[in-house]
Amino acid sequence: MLEIGREALHQMYVVEEQSIRACASKLYCQPSKVRKHLELNQIPIQKKKGGRVRVEERLKAELHMDDTQFKEYLLHLRFFQMLTYAQLAKRFKCSSASAQMVYKRYGIETKQRYNRLLTESRLYELYVLKNKTIIECADILDCSHTLVRYYLLKYKIPLRSAGAKRIEVHIKSRLGMSDLQLRQYLTELAKAYTMDELVHQLAHSKSSIRLMYKRLGIKKNWKKKKASKE
């Protein structure tokens, strides 16, 4: 049997949240010995029905969250606030290993995987060129919509308002144009008007108009404003 010190016992039982049986196995002794030393060292023994409560169950109870809300909370801490597992351990009042296990149990993988999966070019293709919603992007990439939104912001890709449609869809519908006619029409507009004039002509913002031209692959040869003669 290994020597059972208070610090080692506190680390295993309180910080790492190991059961009495698991502590006994590591210390090569009987569970009754561990229990006795917990009492001698005045370390409170967890008496929970069905075993000790997992970190996530305790946190969900404290934060009044269900599973879905708690998973979004975990994603926010890890991917928006960019907290390390050591920082998460302090917030969760557990060990770094326990904090990492919480994420693993919720199926949240490391950022390295998402950095490979949610690249700027891939998100631009789905969100801008193909006009997919954030939820649709999440389904395609098999991840949370919170992550998609995080990476869109990270890459400074402008977010659309909920339910927003492409400008070109409105123009085609209003003028009864085919795709080819629309491209010709927009090409002529770019030659005839400045960007400021196009904003009034099309009744959309500059950023939306630029994105439309980029989506359609139309070369933008904006008409320049003539300098006023003195």
Return the domain count.
4
What fraction of the residues are assigned to beta strands by DSSP? Answer: under 5%
Low-confidence runs of at least 5 consecutive residues: none
What portion of residues is helical?
55-70%
Q: Helices and strands, in N-to-C order?
A: HHHHHHHHHHHHHHH
State the distance separating the first and last CA atoms.
Answer: 97 Å
Class by SSE composition? mainly alpha
Strand count, sense and barrel status of the largest sheet are:
none
| Backbone shape | rod-shaped
Query: How many DSSP H or I helices?
Result: 15
What is Rg?
Answer: 29 Å
Report the mean per-residue pLDDT as an integer: 80
Beta strands, count: 0
How does the SSE layout of this entry go?
Elements lengths: L5 H10 L4 H8 L3 H10 L14 H9 L3 H14 L4 H8 L3 H10 L5 H7 L2 H10 L4 H8 L3 H10 L12 H9 L3 H14 L2 H8 L3 H11 L14
Describe this protein's structure.
The chain is mainly alpha-helical and 230 residues long. The chain folds into four domains: 1-52; 55-108, no CATH class; 112-154; 167-216, no CATH class. It is 63% helix and 0% strand. The protein has 15 helices and no strands. The protein has helices at residues 6-15, 20-27, 31-40, 55-63, 67-80, 85-92, 96-105, 111-117, 120-129, 134-141, 145-154, 167-175, 179-192, 195-202, 206-216. The longest helix is centred in the first third of the chain and has 14 residues, at 67-80. The chain is rod-shaped. The protein starts with 5 loop residues before the first helix and ends in a 14-residue tail after the last helix.
